[in-house]
Design a protein that fits this description.
Length: about 800
């Protein structure tokens, strides 16, 4: 053993509190900025008004100001990269994990070669809002100073309304639409320390860890309570990394289900955290011991009700009028059709255990909107469900209360969650709320005279989607209360298991905090129901993450990662390095064990298979393509790339989300062409082969603990290859993806903790492990998942 020193933070716990006093989901980590950081104790202690608590531990460098008994303002700067705020609540100690912000000031400078009346900048650092960051100009030089987290930021300049890349910055990346963005690198981009658990000794009740870092610290927490963990030993040398051992206390044996979180850091940076589910003092070793309420096990299927299956033709009421094209009319899919497919084991055979059902609330009878583009003239029906004229009634064209109850009952019988799509941001102009309270909507006309329609970033919290669909002013408490009560109503009337929230970023954070607080108080805690909420936000990592924490949403859809994965796997010339970087950024912003939704596609995008086979170009308008030409599958093309995307989604952290039909490669342009009626029969060989591959991948996901709770380490990336590992105690999976146009022989040096394992190729590609190096042959646009045994 050399002189490398390790620190284990020793913490203690007393008796546990009753369930109604504390929130027992693992707390999310709060990032503490230099200056002030606000913590709402409602997020962590839902009954804080009736609960006596004391602040018993504060990180060095931080002072705490208490406001209204349940708002804490942290002043100062944390000395350590990882620390805890300790509270004693009714004689029990709980801890809120805190991570030191690593933001730095960065000054952007641009010297244009042309003259502009107006020069602006937009990028991922300002959510592509051209009005967010006015440039300062002096002597022909433009500058902008911002405080940013270390990372890579894409941006373009806008001169007199025309976008272009920065001619002084050679670092560029494809924007996925046929053009390029400039890339700005900010701060220290070196990797954070990586830790993993590599084994458990049942007799000694000891977990063994490995890290390559020096001067490391670990902080064990059990169900938000600090635990008295006994540090047993460590051994380290430069060649092998460092192993150290942690003994689990005896009192961990008393609970059927608990969650061990181990937070980590070195002297400079917070590392990844570990999440190990325990049962009666033993780490859960088999996925069969978990169920749908353990949300890391979830594989979600997105059902657009009207386009899935018609199970009850008696409720069909299409408009059948010339003003509405058939693609924009009702097709007859309904709740009864979904229930039929549950009974037919369609979802079970796909290993699905979570259904996202599109909105089923009452929508207007007639057509609205009017599009006159691409040589097309059409109005639209409300078949999709996103134009509510009621927030509590089921549209009879989708079915009845009884049919929804039957769907939920059948899903639960097969251990499947049911998530309902809830629309809070806006209502249709026919909604009774607006008739009764016309002042509850935001202003349609801006002070400068423009209409506030589809200004998604510039007027994020007030913009309307269309003139007939006003946005509610949810910053008003009275308006927010009505929509929150309506949301809670669905949980009280039906045993649903969560929400998918539409237009999340257009709703203030205060709404999500109050909704989640009310759900905890009225549903989750008194009824012991495990709920999951996922949001829809297009924007920067920082904006998306601002809605995801213990007091708001559990996750959001990972559109940024999807865009990078689709480009890396399907767009010629796009480097796989970019996908590796995007995966690292996702883990940095959302956590090592986040519950973000990793998607295969979306109802607002062109079908992924059509990009994969070249039927859709990345530089074209996919909506126009869907209206103006017939888009079909290309035999023998694109399906291998689609399988790669499934392999990626099923092996990275998060909740995989399958958009209906992607499992068979349904083609199409953008909405409404991406919303064709689901195909259940007459599959060709390409479709059947993809479906078989998807079933095998979802089966792996469902049966391997490392794919649910394992640590993620990127082992190699280059222009055509991405290799990463998932590791959970003594089990591991290696994932290899290749975007090359021909067979590749890939060689990767494995870290020490993986070198003594034996692996099996799940998809039949030849692989060897010799002298700590993995050698494997991967065909063009192929993949492999190797699992330890």
């Amino acid at each position: 053993m050399n002189s490398m020193r390790f620190l284990l933070v020793i913490l203690w716990v007393s008796c546990l509190l009753p369930a109604q006093a504390l929130w027992d989901k693992p707390y999310s980590t709060v990032t503490v900025s230099d200056g002030t950081t606000q913590i709402e104790l409602h997020d962590f202690l839902p009954n804080v008004e009736q609960t006596a608590y004391k602040i018993t531990g504060v990180p060095s460098g931080i002072d705490v100001q208490v406001v209204n008994n349940y708002t804490l303002i942290l002043h100062g700067a944390m000395e350590k990269p990882m620390d805890f705020l300790e509270l004693t609540v009714q004689n029990t100690q709980v801890v809120i994990p805190l991570k030191r912000s690593n933001k730095v000031q960065h000054t952007f400078t641009f010297q244009p070669t042309d003259t502009y009346e107006k020069l602006e900048i937009k990028g991922t650092f300002n959510n592509w809002d051209v009005s967010a960051d006015p440039l300062t100009t002096k002597n022909g030089q433009y500058t902008l100073t911002k405080t940013l987290s270390p990372g890579r930021y894409e941006y373009v300049l806008v001169g007199d309304g025309k976008e272009f890349t920065d001619n002084l910055n050679e670092n560029r990346i494809s924007n996925g639409m046929g053009g390029y963005n400039s890339v700005l690198e900010v701060g220290d981009l070196s990797a954070a320390p990586f830790f993993t658990a590599v084994g458990f000794d049942k007799g000694k009740k000891e977990i063994r860890f490995w890290t390559a870092s020096s001067n490391a610290s670990i902080y064990p927490v059990l169900d938000n309570h600090p635990i008295a963990a006994e540090y047993v030993s460590s051994e380290s040398n430069a060649a092998n990394g460092t192993y150290f051992t942690l003994r689990i206390p005896d009192y961990a044996k008393i609970t059927a289900k608990s969650q061990l979180r181990v937070y980590t850091s070195d002297s400079k940076k917070a590392g990844n955290d570990l999440w190990i589910p325990f049962s009666y003092g033993q780490p859960v070793a088999r996925t069969a011991l978990l169920n749908r309420n353990d949300h890391h096990t979830n594989i979600m299927y997105s059902v657009l009700v009207d386009r899935f299956r018609n199970g009850n033709p008696s409720n069909d009421r299409p408009l059948n009028i010339p003003e509405v094209l058939p693609a924009a009319d009702w097709h007859g899919g309904d709740l009864a059709g979904i229930t039929m497919q549950i009974r037919n084991n369609y979802f079970k055979n796909l290993n699905i255990n979570s259904l996202w059902v599109s909105p089923i609330i009452l929508n207007p009878e007639g057509p609205y909107g009017h599009m006159q583009e691409y040589g097309v003239d059409t109005k639209f029906s409300g078949y999709h469900g996103y134009w509510p004229i009621s927030s509590s009634k089921i549209d009879p064209r989708f079915g009845s209360d009884e049919e929804f109850q039957q769907l939920i009952g059948q899903a639960h019988h097969q251990d499947m969650n049911v998530l309902l799509d809830y629309v809070a941001n806006h209502v249709h102009e026919e909604h009774p709320l607006l008739e009764k309270h016309p002042d509850w909507k935001t202003d349609l006309i801006l002070p400068d005279g423009r209409k506030n329609i589809r200004l998604y970033d510039e007027q994020r919290l007030t913009t309307w989607f269309d003139e007939f669909m006003p946005t509610l002013d949810l910053e008003r408490e009275d308006v927010a209360k009505v929509m929150i009560d309506s949301a809670v109503f669905w949980f009280k009337k039906f045993r649903i298991d969560g929400f998918r929230h539409d237009a999340t970023k257009h709703i203030p954070n205060s709404f999500w905090r109050q909704l989640t607080y009310q759900l905890k108080r009225e549903i989750t805690m008194p009824q012991n129901r495990a709920l999951y909420q996922i949001g829809e936000t297009y924007g920067s990592h920082e904006l998306i993450a601002s809605y995801v924490n213990t007091g708001m949403l559990d996750g959001q859809f990972e559109f940024n990662l999807f865009d990078k994965a689709r480009s890396a796997l399907m767009q010629p010339g796009y480097s796989m390095k970019n996908l590796g970087e995007a995966l690292s950024e996702s883990l940095t912003y959302y956590g090592s064990h986040h519950l973000m939704g990793t998607i295969t596609g979306n109802h607002d995008k062109g079908r992924t298979i059509s990009y994969a086979d070249g039927s859709l170009r990345f530089d074209e308008d996919a909506k126009e393509a869907g209206y103006t030409r017939t888009i079909n599958n290309v035999p023998g093309k694109g399906f291998n790339k689609m399988a790669q995307l499934f392999a990626f989604n099923m092996t990275v952290p998060g909740i995989p989300v399958i958009y209906y039909g992607d499992e068979i490669g349904m083609p199409g342009g953008d909405d409404p062409d991406s919303r064709r009626m689901m195909q259940f029969s007459g599959l060709n060989k390409d479709q059947s082969d993809l479906l078989h591959t998807v079933r095998k991948l979802t089966g792996l996901r469902s049966s391997r603990m490392e794919l649910l709770y394992g640590q993620t380490e990127i082992l190699h990336s280059d222009d055509h290859t991405l290799v990463y590992a998932r590791n959970y105690l003594d089990k591991a999976s290696l994932v290899v993806l290749s975007s090359a146009e021909k067979m590749q022989e890939i060689e990767v040096k494995l870290p020490k903790y993986l070198q003594n394992k034996e692996f099996m190729s799940e998809f039949g590609h030849s692989a060897m492990l010799i002298d700590g190096k993995l050698s494997i042959e991967i065909p063009a646009h192929g993949f492999e998942v190797l699992t330890s045994y």
